[in-house]
Amino acid sequence: MRIVVDAFGSDTAPVPDVAGAVQAAREWGDEIILVGPEDQIRQELAKHDTAGLNIRVVHAPEILTMEDHSDAVRSKVDSSIRVGMRLVKSGEADAFFSAGNTIAVLSSAIFDLRRIRGIRRPALATIYPPAFQPVLLLDMGATADCKPDYLLQFARMGAIYAERVLGIANPRVGLLANGEEAEKGSLVVRETYQVLQESELNFVGNVEPKDVTRGEADVVVTDGFTGNIMVKTAESIASFVARMVKRDLLSGPLNKLALVLLLPGLLVALPGLLLLYPGMRQLIKRLDYAEYGGALLLGVDGIAIVGHGRSNAKAVKSGVGQARLAVANGVIETIKAGLQEGE
Fewer CB atoms near the end CB (10 Å): N or C, the chain? Predict the structure, then answer.
């Protein structure tokens, strides 16, 4: 595969962006195309062992920062994001990853990749981490202000992805709300409830966050503002619990004394703790954003993955992995075919 990585996307670019790209090239043997100011990319690449790796550098003299919005995206036609998008559009690459400004990536995707015919607004889709089974959540940041027909399209794209990529037969679609009753939620949520209920989808009604974690829907639809807050809240809770354990249980003289007194018992229990280790490790991975890498932008005519601005090398590599998965599953063709069948 040929995956473009925006070398100047993350908050601390190009260090993690280049490191993650190198790790991805080593892991999968794909062609990784790093886009950005060439001299700076090559300077960073020189810090890594790239012997035998298929890494190409494409010069893009401009950079879109986190402060830039759609006007800047229009004017900076030679930015790393726009040059990378055009590589996908022209067929020189199969997918694009950036840990940069979400608005800039979204705007560039609309300008350069264009929307799939009939789609009014794109949506960022991700597997919701704190759920016992795969739950596709969309939108999580592409379209903050939604209309019912936007959310209906999100639901259709999400259902197609869940059925044909995740392998979930007749996926259950839920609408994120503050209560299960049809009359709960904002005006848009209440209107969307009626639209989804009258659609061909397997709509199971409103779902609260607790229902999402229990897997009571396979696809959960919401506006980009609410979805983004929901995902970031889940990530912050995981981080908070880890910090709380470190601060409240592993600090202070009394806690340290208690650990010393408990040490003989812990040694006796060591075999049992070792048996629990794989499960604990899996739990940590489930809640680690770096394991997921980024969210897939659905609704545009090309594969684009958007990562966290704070992405480290592991997250960048995982983002490339998400791009590879989308390419392997023919996501764009799948969405197009599914939408045509539903017309």
Answer: C
Residue 272 Cα to chain centre, angstroms: 35
Sequence-distant (6+) residues with CB within 8 A of 107 are 69, 70, 73, 74
Q: In what order do the strands lie in the sheet with 219-221?
A: 55-59, 31-36, 2-6, 95-98, 304-306, 295-298, 123-127, 136-138, 219-221, 172-176, 202-207
Task: Going residue by residue through the chain, which has 343 residues, state the pLDDT in tens, using 9 for 90 and above.
Answer: 999 999 999 999 999 999 999 999 999 999 999 999 999 999 999 999 999 999 999 999 999 888 878 788 889 999 999 999 999 999 999 999 999 888 899 999 999 999 998 899 999 998 887 677 889 999 888 888 999 999 999 999 999 999 988 889 999 999 999 988 888 889 999 999 999 999 999 999 999 998 988 889 999 999 999 998 988 887 777 667 667 666 666 666 666 665 566 566 656 655 655 555 565 555 555 555 566 678 899 999 999 999 988 889 999 999 999 999 999 999 999 888 888 776 5
What domains are there in the chain, each with its CATH number? 2-119+293-338 (3.40.718.10), 123-229 (3.40.50.10750)
| Per-residue DSSP letter, 209 | H
Q: Which of 148, 96, 95, 100 has its CA nearest to residue 121?
A: 148
Q: Is the full-model pTM beyond 0.90? A: no
Peptide bond preceding 139 in cis form (omega within 30 of 0): yes
Burial class from Cβ neighbours inside 10 Å (0-12, 13-18, 19+) for residue 70 reads: middle
